[in-house]
């Protein structure tokens, strides 16, 4: 580390450091956890700022009547280090005390977590559930993260050069940084201009409805203005106040998380005046967390990976048997699909034409493991899960739904299946790092050309593409087109290679692993942030 290496504070609503540390929901948190691990491994001066969630994200199970049951539990952790520091944030006219915990035991750079679950607070449940409840509580949580996060850094006496807002949840930190400068004698616009030199912003959401907005009145009621003027707040984020637009206007530079997402984001936000430039830095994964070292080394030597992969496959099959009572065939092609049950990800697309898929499932030529989790209020996502459960009922020996998707199950599947299926509607997936975790373990990707895959896909060499990047006029048109392409590629290319050309399959596995290690590690990603954004 050079002496002039910028010291970074990395703000994020969630961090996925370990499956049992329940402060993550999905890909955003896993990315943030991998980022902190890369910072530690490369000796980079990064400080994470997040929230100590009492109940974390939802635990989701299917009961014996095939109903989706959402559960929340209070978690205690003996590895949290008490810093002895508390900071205060005014929320809804009341002072909210925030305790600051430190976590550095997962091979990560230091992470500080704010916690409102204190006896002296009447609002102790603000940090209760990640992405839980409704608008007021979401704003309160974001005030704790942003305003409280900056105040925690001051109390910790951290010398910070760059404030990195990983998604729009953190933008209230920008208000606090401006307020500090105004307190030192600068006028509001001068403070804003100067703060921009120290702020960078990452956007992850290529769906316009997914970019959070709030009315100025509710922000005022919540005390989110942080002492700033209403008209000034509107200049930053508009009215209603858009958190992503605010991030773009508060920062000196912004980034999307894949080349394709960069094009989508620039088109989506082209009308936001006075915004920062949006460049592309493709996400990466922490190889030490997600990769099988034996497979990586064998791929480097271009050795046979089939037997090594079979060990991971048998281990996964045993886990599925213990959890579900279904014994999958190790010699059959097993397809994996595990992620959030967001509708655009189309978790049930492979079942869209039962006439096509049914013979493959009945013969066990194809077996499918699916693990999804829907937000408690995402009723469309829950309908997708119910559809998959109905398919599982018809083909119980070939379709397995695994409860409660989490980091541990994600790691098991991305090592054990043969093919990783990813079929988002094109332009809707920002990156899709689960496919990277599969690729580094020799699991071949079968994906639409979205997110990271257009950069990594060398068709029939590192995996397979579904379609040609087609974007339909309607969702239905796109789903029909992609469904046909999925079946065509699966039947004529994937199955043909798996059952009739093991040498080619092995060559593809080797190519996939080596391309992944070289180009899609979190090490490469964090160095790009330092080279292209922080400096």
Automatic annotation (TrEMBL):
GO molecular function: glycogen phosphorylase activity; pyridoxal phosphate binding
InterPro entries, sorted: Agluc_phsphrylas (IPR011834), Glyco_trans_35 (IPR000811), Glycogen/Maltodextrin_Phosph (IPR052182)
GO biological process, one term: carbohydrate metabolic process
Pfam families: Phosphorylase (PF00343)
NCBIfam families listed in its UniProt record: more_P_ylases
Family, as annotated: Belongs to the glycogen phosphorylase family.
PANTHER family to which the protein is assigned, alphabetical: GLYCOGEN PHOSPHORYLASE
Name used for this protein in its record: Glycogen phosphorylase-related protein
Organism ancestry: Bacteria, Bacillati, Bacillota, Clostridia, Eubacteriales
